[in-house]
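Work Package 4 report. The design task specified in the project plan requires that, given a folded chain encoded as structure tokens, an amino acid be chosen for each position. We show below one input record used in the internal validation round.
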């Protein structure tokens, strides 16, 4: 499957997200009520999460990632990055205007 841009504004169809140890990735499950179709977004690397929209980051922040206890450390890496993105307003649409970026430049 060819690489493509990360899907944006999926928050309206969000149903949940899990850490899948067999594929070592986070899987976001979406359900389109209009069509009845279910689809998934597979996130192999936690850093890919910064490519989501602000609303998507908020959605992931307010919804706990599900995982099996032995996979807690790996799953928490995804949640930790979402927490940072939410707290510092880092998302696909605000890279250059991030509050965090402004605060870091003011320190120098």
């Amino acid at each position: 499957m060819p690489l493509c841009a990360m899907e944006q504004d999926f928050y309206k169809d969000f149903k949940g997200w899990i850490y899948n140890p067999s594929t070592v990735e986070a899987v976001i499950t979406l359900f389109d009520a209009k069509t009845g179709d279910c689809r998934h977004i597979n996130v192999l690397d936690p850093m890919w999460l910064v490519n989501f929209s602000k609303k998507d980051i908020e959605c992931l922040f307010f919804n706990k990632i599900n995982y099996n206890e032995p996979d807690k450390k790996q799953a928490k890496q995804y949640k930790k990055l979402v927490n940072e993105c939410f707290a510092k307003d880092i998302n696909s649409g605000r890279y250059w205007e991030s509050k965090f970026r402004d605060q870091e430049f003011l320190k120098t």
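Residues 3 and 42 are 12 Å apart (CA to CA). Validation will be extended to a larger panel in the next phase.
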